Amino acid sequence: MAEEVRLPDLGEGIDQGDVVRILVSEGDSIAVDQPVIELETDKALVEVPSSIAGTVASVNVRNAERISPGAVLITVDAAQAGDAPETEPESRAADRNIRQLPADAPMEPQAPRAPVNADTDEATPAAEETSRISVPAAPSVRRFARELGVDLRQVPGSGAGGRITREDVKGYVQSSLSEAGQSGPVVAPDLPDFTRWGHVERQPLPGVRRTIAQNVSTAWAQVPHVTQFDRADVTDLEAFRQRHKTGTEARSGKLTPTPFVLKAVVSALKAFPQFNASLDLAAGQLVLKHYYHIGVAVDTERGLLVPVLRDVDRRGVFELAIQLDDLARRTREGRADLEELQGGTFTVTNLGSIGGTSFTPIVNFPEVAILGMGRSRQEPVVRDGRIEARFIMPICLSYDHRVVDGADGARFTRHLAESLEDPERMLLGG
C-alpha cells in the first residue's frame, strides 16, 4: 500500500524551507528514521527522516524548491507488517527524529531605539539650554533620557505640574517600541531594471544568507558602532606557539593564535565587565553576564557561522585549541548542533589566515562588542634604541557606543594587547 511522507512541523516560527539535497531515489528501499531530504530554513539545516519503511515509489520535491509543512516529500510502498517493525504515526516520528544541522542561529530581535525628533536630534547648545528650562524633569531623569536617546519634549509628564518622571520615560520607550513592532518591517526600495544595461541572472537567496543579511542589517541600523584599532607585539607568543604546536597536533588540535586570543579576551572581559553584557533598552538596564561563552566566526560554504565555545575562562589554551578545531570542523561540515550556535557573550573573528590587516567587524547582537584579528607580520620595531624584527598582530574592536565609551574601548584593547605580549604570564593567570 502506497503511503505519503510529508514535511512535519519544524518548530515555532518556521513556516517554510528550501530543499538542499534529496537523499533517496525511486526504487530505493528505506527504513524508518532514514533521512530522505536535507532542508534549509532560516534557523537551521535539518535532515527530514521517513516515518515509513518500504520502497520509494516517487519523489515529489525538487532541489532548491521551497516547501511548507504538510508538503508531500515522497510516496512509499510500505513494507508488509511481517517485513518491518511497526512504525509510529508519521508526524510524531518525524518530529522526534529531525536532526538539526547548523545554520546561523537567529539573533533575538532588537528593540528599536525610541524615536527622537529629527529637528532636535543634534540640537545646538542654546537649544539644549532652552529644553532644560522648558521641560520639567530632574537631572537624573534627563540623564536617563539621554542614555536612551529620548527627547524629553516628546514625553508627557505625570508628576505635579507636568513634571516628567523616570517611569514616564520608560513608558514612552515601551509605547514607542510597541508602535514600531506594529508598523511591520521596513520595505526595501525598488531596484531599477538592470536588464536595460545588459544580461542579468537572479539567484535565490539561501535561508542562511537571508538570516545573515537580516541580522547584520539589524545590528548595523540599531547599534551605534565605534571601531578602535591597536597592535599587539606577539613575538613571544609566536615563539611559544611554535614550541608547543606539535604536541597539540598530536592530540587532534591546531595551536593557532586564536586560543591565546580567547584567553586574553576573557582576561579583558573580567577587567571590563561592561563588554560581557547586553543592553536592555526598554528596561533601561545593562545585563552583565557572569559567564564567558565566546563565539568564533567560521567561514563555511553556506556563509559565516558563529559557533560558541562555553566557559572559556575554565579551559586551558591546549584544551581550547582541540575544542575549537573540532567545533569549527563540524560547523563547516554541517554537523554542529543548533545549541552550539547560541548563547555567546562576545565574538572573535580572525581573518589572518586569509590576509589583510585591519577591518571593522559588526557587533553580533545582542552582544555589545566583537574583536577582529588580522594576520601577524614581521615588522621593524624600535626597542631600546635598536631596530628589531617583531611579529605584530593588528586587532580591531567594534562596540556599542551606548554601553562603552571610547576611553574604555582603548583600555580594553591595551589590556588585550599586553596579555598577548606576555603569554606565559597570561597563561599563569597573572
List the helices and strands and how they pair.
Elements: E1 2-6, E2 17-22, E3 29-30, E4 35-40, E5 44-49, E6 54-59, E7 66-67, E8 72-78, H1 90-97, E9 99-102, H2 125-134, H3 139-148, H4 166-182, H5 207-222, E10 225-233, H6 235-250, H7 257-271, E11 277-280, E12 285-288, E13 294-296, E14 298-300, E15 303-305, E16 308-309, H8 317-332, E17 346-350, E18 369-373, E19 377-383, E20 386-400, H9 406-421, H10 423-427
Parallel strand pairs: 13-17, 17-18
Antiparallel strand pairs: 1-8, 2-4, 2-7, 3-6, 4-5, 5-9, 6-8, 10-20, 11-12, 13-16, 14-15, 18-20, 19-20
Helix pairs in contact: 7-8, 7-9
How would you sum up this structure in a few lines?
The chain is of the alpha+beta class and about 425 residues long. It has helices at about 90-95, 125-135, 140-150, 165-180, 205-220, 235-250, 255-270, 315-330, 405-420, 425; strands spanning about 1-5, 15-20, 30, 35-40, 45-50, 55-60, 65, 70-80, 100, 225-235, 275-280, 285-290, 295, 300, 305, 310, 345-350, 370-375, 375-385, 385-400. It has three domains: about 1-100, OB fold (Dihydrolipoamide Acetyltransferase, E2P), CATH 2.40.50; about 125-180, Irregular (Dihydrolipoamide Transferase); about 205-425, Chloramphenicol acetyltransferase-like domain (Chloramphenicol Acetyltransferase, 2-Layer Sandwich).
Q: Can you tell me about this structure?
A:
The protein has 430 residues and is an alpha+beta fold. It folds into three domains: 2-102, RNA polymerase II/Efflux pump adaptor protein, barrel-sandwich hybrid domain (OB fold (Dihydrolipoamide Acetyltransferase, E2P)), CATH 2.40.50; 125-182, E3-binding domain (Dihydrolipoamide Transferase, Irregular), CATH 4.10.320; 207-427, 2-Layer Sandwich (Chloramphenicol Acetyltransferase). 30% of the residues lie in helices and 24% in strands. The protein has helices at 90-97, 125-134, 139-148, 166-182, 207-222, 235-250, 257-271, 317-332, 406-421, 423-427, and strands at 2-6, 17-22, 29-30, 35-40, 44-49, 54-59, 66-67, 72-78, 99-102, 225-233, 277-280, 285-288, 294-296, 298-300, 303-305, 308-309, 346-350, 369-373, 377-383, 386-400. The strands form five sheets. Strands 10, 13, 16, 17, 18, 19 and 20 form a seven-stranded mixed sheet that branches. The protein is globular, with a radius of gyration of 27 Å. The chain starts with a strand and ends with a helix. Residues 84-97 and 102-133 have low confidence and may be disordered.
